[in-house]
Amino acid sequence: MKSSSWLWRILGWTTLVCLLVMVTGFGWALKDTWFPKTGLALPEATAKPEVATGGDWSAKNELYVAALGDSLTKGTGDATGKGYVTRVIDLLSEQMDKPVYLVNNMAINGQRADQLMNRLDEVGYRNALGKADIILMTIGGNDLFQIAQNGGSMAEGGDLSPELLSERLPDAQPRLETVFHKIRALNPSARIIYVGLYNAFYDLPEMVPASNTVAEWNDYAFALAKADGNATVVRRTTCSNLI
Fold first, then answer.
1. Torsion angle, CA of 47/49/55/58, rounded to 10 degrees?
2. Half-sphere exposure of 128 (CA within 13 A, CB side)
3. Coil, helix or strand for 127?
4. What sign does the dihedral 45-46-49-55 (CA atoms) show?
5. DSSP string spanning 61-93?
6. According to the model, what pLDDT value does residue 236 have?
7. Could you give the C-alpha distances from 118 to 93, 153, 169, in angstroms and in order?
8. Helix, strand or coil for residue 148?
9. How far is 36 from 170, CA to CA, in rounded Å?
């Protein structure tokens, strides 16, 4: 296979840049979801909602955010030391005109969904997530890419095997589902914001299988969020794409 080490050298930085471009629109999306502008025609409320509403944030004097996942949420590689979590919190506080506090950023470099599943049973995770109004999360990239490398890790310039990437998808998806379910059990009302995997392969003809696998992962995450009823997936096919 033709070496893809050059791709991995730019993938991490490209993803971080995309996250920064995304933050402003991300903040506005959250604001419009929870604080619609006066005059908008909204559906009439039912006596018994079918899904969680996420609480009445407009009545709260302050909001609390918890973050968890992998290196992207931890902010690794950001020269300013802020990462997207801090930027999102700052923007939300500004746009909502109220304090927004970080309960804890529990993200760990290199973390996989199976590791996060186990850590969600720890008291620290349970307490932080239980207090949050908003939960930010990235997870899954290491589940797929760590085990799809030939000839070494990304940093060592190992080749990416699209075949291995595709083979591991069925095992990784249920772990993501378990993470969603565990978080929801710990906090029935918090809004879960899952940042999907950036698809760096979509315009590379030789990497179509890998692109399809990443897209399938993001589609699966979107289905989980829809089933949850109080979750949002930020799915990026370009740097500015926000769903």
1. -60
2. 20
3. helix
4. positive
5. S-EEEEEEESHHHHTTT-TTS-HHHHHHHHHHH
6. 61
7. 32, 24, 20
8. helix
9. 38
Q: Which amino acid, 136?
A: L
Distance separating alpha carbons of residues 67 and 106, to the nearest angstrom = 6
Kindly state the helix (H) or strand (E) to which residue 199 belongs, with its residue range: none
What pLDDT is attached to residue 81?
Answer: 78
Q: What is the Cα–Cα distance from 73 to 84, expressed in whole angstroms?
A: 7
- The rounded distance, in Å, linking the Cα atoms of 195 and 235 is 6
- What DSSP designation does 201 have? T
Helices within the chain (DSSP H only): 5-34, 71-74, 83-96, 113-119, 123-131, 141-145, 162-186, 208-228
The SS3 of residue 39 is coil
Phi, psi of 158 (to 5 degrees): -65, 150
Find out whether 210 and 11 touch, Cβ atoms under 8 Å. no
Q: CATH top-level class for 63-234?
A: alpha beta
Find the length of the chain. 243
DSSP 173: H
What secondary structure letter does DSSP report for 147?
G
What is d(CA 69, CA 116) in angstroms, rounded to the nearest whole number?
7
The 3-state DSSP class for residue 102 equals strand
List, for residues 128-186, the tens digit of each pLDDT value.
999 999 999 999 999 988 755 544 444 444 456 788 888 889 999 999 999 999 999 99
Non-local CB neighbours of 177 within 8 Å, separated by 6+ positions: 224
Q: How far apart are CA 147 and CA 77, in angstroms?
A: 22
The pair of structure tokens assigned to 58 is 């407009």
Q: Where are the domains of the chain?
A: 1-42, 63-234
Q: What's the token pair of residue 98?
A: 């109220």
C-alpha 126/C-alpha 150 separation (Å) is 37
